[in-house]
Amino acid sequence: MSADESADLRQRNRLLEEEVARLRAALAAQPADSGRVAGKPNETAFGRAFWHRPARIDAPLPEPDPDRIADAEFRLLADHLPILCWLARSDGYLFWYNRRWLDYCGSTQEAMAGWGWQSVHDPAELPRVMAVWTASIATGAPFEMVFPLRGADGVFRPFLTRIVPLRDASGRVVRWFGVNAEIGAQARAEAALRDSETRLRRAQEAGGVGVFSVDIATDMVHATPHFFRLYGLPEVEQLPLDAITRLVVPSDAGAISQRAERDAGFAERDVAYRIRRADTGAERWIARRGEFERDARGRPLRFVGAVRDITDHKEAERRAEANERELRLVTDALPVLIAFIGRDYVYRFANAAYQDWFYRPASEIVGRDVRDLLTPANAEVRRAYIERALAGEAVRFEAAWPHADGRHRDAEIRYLPRRGTGGAVDGFHVFVQDITDRKRVETVLLSEVTQRTRERDRLWEATNDLMGIAGLDGFLKSVNPAWTQMLGWSEAELLARPFADFADPADHAETQAVVGRLAAGETVMGFVNRVLTERGEQRVVMWTAVPEPGTGLFYIVGRDLTEQRWAEEQLRQAQKMEAIGQLTGGIAHDFNNLLTGIIGSLDLMQTRIQQGRTDAVARYARAATSSANRAAALTHRLLAFARRQPLEPQPTAANPLITGMEDLLRRTLGERVQLELVTAGGLWLTLCDPHQLENALLNLAINARDAMPEGGRLVIETGNTHLDRAYARQHAGVNEGQYICVSVSDTGTGMSPEVAARAFDPFFTTKPLGQGTGLGLSMIYGFAKQSEGHVRIDSEPGRGTRVKLYLPRHHGAVPPETMASGLTEQHRAARGDTVLVVEDEPVVRDLIVEVLEDLGYTALQAADAQAGLALLSETGRIDLLISDVGLPGGLNGRQMVDAARLHRPDLKVLFITGYAENATFGNGHLEPGMRMITKPFPVEALAARVRAMIAGLD
User: Fold this and answer.
1) CA–CA gap between residue 799 and residue 746 (Å, rounded)
2) pTM here?
3) Calpha distance 46→851 (Å, rounded)
């Protein structure tokens, strides 16, 4: 609260006190009032209605006698007083109340007579009142105190009560006269004043305002600490005023008073000026307000006041002015008439568009009454709309508003009421827009809509697609004729039964799931199910369904795919045969090359041995081994593409695996290819065969290198990702969920869409003859699918290629690393270890048996599962069973093991396989005591695995 407001509040308090003392001066003749206000308003409304209502005088008063006033006349006059008053006998018995008392308390003379007045007192205050009143009766002393009285509305209000004794000629008290004056407003004002002073004191304590005093005689300044902080000056006891005025920006020096003016008692009360702070030199705005304190003769003694920093306020004013200018520019640029009109119908604002609509500039509009600008007929029409806007209603209407040359124009007029801070409407905004073109377009559109409706109806009748409206309750609501034409059911039959009755039972669960998605507000596209005809045949239909929110309905369109699916199946069969021919041709070509190297090397070895020339045998053996290893690698790639590759998945951290390959990759890529690894922090684990992941990355790096013959940049990135339902629906065989993504990007030649579409085909390659088998990407594709992942190629000719490998997230932990197996010599048999070998291929079986015997094992052998079971059924010692998975004789290796474990439950088994025909082998789900090794394998690896399993280390 400002100093002016505080002074004003004090003045109002004094006036209230004087009003209590001037009660008799309020007598005046007024017309009779209509009675008390009905109901029980709140305290403020009741008080305002009661204290401002004139009292009634029920009988005419006689002409006044200046020498005396009759008792009846006194009572009539007292009824007119704007206060409560009453009379009591000398013993305190109250026998009369004026009408104000009875109206305020909502009571009667009879109810209040005697001591009835106690019923309107606060019970908590009544003992104190009675004590003082009793003492006054006993002593004859006047009575004055403040206490609350309850009004007719049930609210207690504070009253100042004064009671004086009326004495006879002997001085004896014969009556008491009392008045009660309501002082709620005064009490609230005093409380507000105290609160204001408290807030002011707290504000000063917090340093929000600097208070100062200038001694006129010495021109010295005394001030609060914050005063000095505002000017950037050190706090001192007193300071010459010149030290302050020197900080004022020269162009603002005229805003401050000079010493001669102050000596004469002249100075502006409110000024604002800029200073440069003494400490930082920063420019700040200061607002100063002050008054002179004068002596009894009116001479100035001191100039006191307060200062505050208004820099932010000035900046806000500057921004507001800029915004106002910008608003004016914007509104003037709009082709819409914009204005504001007050409650008095006078324009307060008008934009430049008024020149076009009223044919006069906006400057001639502002300040004019809207009725002066319209014809009498238009003014009368507008009046009804304006009154609605001033009542708080947003109004919209259309009217013809011709151009100055008479051309027709349609206008859309909007009146939007504006409310002031108190919520009352203080005027309304006007927006007028030319809608002539829009009306013309609407007319054209209406014609088009009518035409389109006719076309839609013809489409509904003529299309072969199934169209209809269905409900979430499971029933069709409307169908087009194509339903009857395709399915044979009549429209009545289709609408009378649940639509699930017309779907193949095997599709019911999926159909219900689709209905659930529609109920959730989702649009469903590409949903395929089988629909039954009236003759019991099946039709394959692809549906699109769109829900209508809030209605429980959805629109459906179904296309018959039965013939298309049959044609696609025929095409796939033809493509399979073509792929088989391409695959077998590629295999024959590559294996013939490899077999030539193996057979030729073996022939030369035999020839040289017969000739006794053994010096070159080792070279021929290495050549044969090299060709055999290449054949094994080719087999692995084929199995990977066919997703029959025996994998050994384990929890894998891709980041360290990739960084561990960095040296190998750099050597492979060469110096002209720049390698960059970007590994994501917090990368999830995945469950895959880490060796196959390394092979996949190496193959991708080699492909990228070959695509950048002149050099380039290869980036391998990792990251976490989520493939959502929409992505899974667009890519067959992809499951929704969380994946890690390994992305390999190059800046090479790229691929055309046609080449990219065939990139995963086996033996398909764009490289020259002899420079690639065409199985690299096929192996990566098979590895990803067998690992329940996904692979994607993004490529464009001349812009490089990016291959993204998605592997599913694994929530387990990384297993501890195990030490690699040592050499075969370190794992010889001990204590008569016995191994049974079951293998139908004699060469492989003899090789394994020979290796085991060389290591000191007792080796038993069988050519099929029946022979193996016969040996296993005997009671002899067998520490380990080595068995092929695929065996002749009706039982495979796994079935033989299951039968043998019925009487040898702890039997340890090492499966050897080159073809994972059952998903149980290769996905980590082997039972305890079972392991697997993949053909072909080094004999050292076989020996190490046998020793580890028997010793319980694997």
Assistant:
1) 9
2) 0.31
3) 114
